Amino acid sequence: MFTSILGFSQEHHEAEKKADTEEEFDATELIMHHISDAHEFHVADINGESISFPLPVILWTDNGLVTFMSSEFHHDNTGEHVVEKNGMKFVRLHEEIYYANKHGGITLNEEHHAENRRPLNFSITKNVFSLFLAAALMLLIFIPTARSYKKGNGVMPKGIGRFMEPLILFVRDDIAKPNIGEKKYKAYMPYLLTVFFLIWIGNIFGLIPFFPFSGTLTNDILFTGVMAAITFLITQFSGNKEYWGHIFWMPGIPVPMKIIMAPIELIGIFTKPFALMIRLFANITAGHIIILSLFSLIFIFGTAWVSPVSVGFALFMNVLELLVAALQAYVFTLLSALFIGQAVAEHDHH
User: Fold this and answer.
1) pTM for the predicted model, two decimal places
2) Which residues contact residue 249 at a Cβ distance below 8 angstroms, ignoring those fewer than 6 apart?
């Protein structure tokens, strides 16, 4: 989630410096800094020195592949975060990496957006690192779980399998079977289990306030968009004749209404995954913003008397986020199963 109470000390330090120079504390900048992806894990500020864990920067440039650690970015005489590699200079602005202009910096337009070209960026950012970590953890959990069933002769799993079995049965009996059906649910269980546990673990990582965690997968709309797109593709490729017939030529209604309903139903194919993407992203991001806003009240009012209320409510929100982490995994998996079930359902016409 947010980098941590320790990580929050960076903004506290910056807020104190701004207070000394009679500058207004910028809560928006603080919040956007924390909820955005980054090329390093920030831990804390100690005596004005930032402690961070750098991550690999991988760029495909005009001169081919360029790799380096994010810690190599440094301030030059233009005041920009720059690095020189393979005869090229790169500039980092708001965690985006650009080719430097002829003056070695960034060219901004009237809307303060960079006009510089960007190389293809395949970097291991904080969220990407969290994705790899979540995938590795899932392998460490599910491979022994599968083996435990073999050791139990398919009747009673052993070891970690006993712990995982209720969760797996929950996805099977409460999500897959009711929405997809007894006959066809098995083909989609691997995907539904992957989605459920990946989202749940990814959300939990965002609540752990220290390295190598603190990167929230579902706080990135690109991640939620890819997950929704996979559900969309599985749904469409699984669709049977009746599914497509109900979209383009809905049975049981007059022909003029069929012509009107067909484009509406077609649009509905795309709005469903869009809603999946936005729902997951917005719910997780909103919780992070609320918690950071509560902490920001201390610096906005400029008094420690606000801290008991801010910290108390923020702690309550953190506990609530534990519930939301599991709930959003359940909702995404449930809706995915529902959409797939609609595509493979066989309707009886009388």
Assistant:
1) 0.82
2) 258, 262
- What are all long-range contacts of 258-266, with beta carbons under 8 Å and residues at least 24 apart? none
Q: How many CB atoms lie within 10 A of CB 231?
A: 24
Counting Cβ atoms within 10 Å, is residue 24 exposed (0-12), middle (13-18) or buried (19+)? exposed
What's the pLDDT score for residue 273? 92
First to last CA, the chain: 53
Q: How far is CA 223 from the centre of its chain?
A: 5
The pLDDT, as a whole number, for residue 77 is: 65
Spatial distance between the Cα atoms of 246 and 347, rounded to a whole number of angstroms: 10
pLDDT digits (tens, 9 = 90+) for 202-230: 999 888 877 777 778 888 899 999 999 99
Torsion of CA 266, 267, 271, 273, to 10 degrees: 40
How far apart are alpha carbons 189 and 133 in whole angstroms? 22
**Residue 343: count of CB within 10 angstroms of its CB:** 20
Going by C-alpha positions, the residue among 39, 31, 44, 33 that lies closest to residue 4 is: 44
Q: Is the peptide bond before 212 cis (omega within 30 degrees of 0)?
A: yes
Residues 6+ apart with CB under 8 A from 66: 57, 58, 59, 60, 85, 86, 88, 90, 119
Rg (CA), the chain: 25
List pLDDT tens digits, range 290-316: 888 888 888 888 777 888 888 888 888
For residue range 112-130, what is the model confidence (pLDDT) as tens digits? 788 888 999 999 988 899 9
**Run of H or E including 172:** none
Nearest-CA neighbor of 292 among 214, 223, 199, 200?
214
Indicate the helix (H) or strand (E) that contains 6: none
For residue 20, give the H/E element and its range: helix 8-20
CB atoms under 10 Å from CB of 349, counted, come to 6
- Tell me how far apart the alpha carbons of residues 192 and 194 are, in angstroms, rounded to a whole number: 5
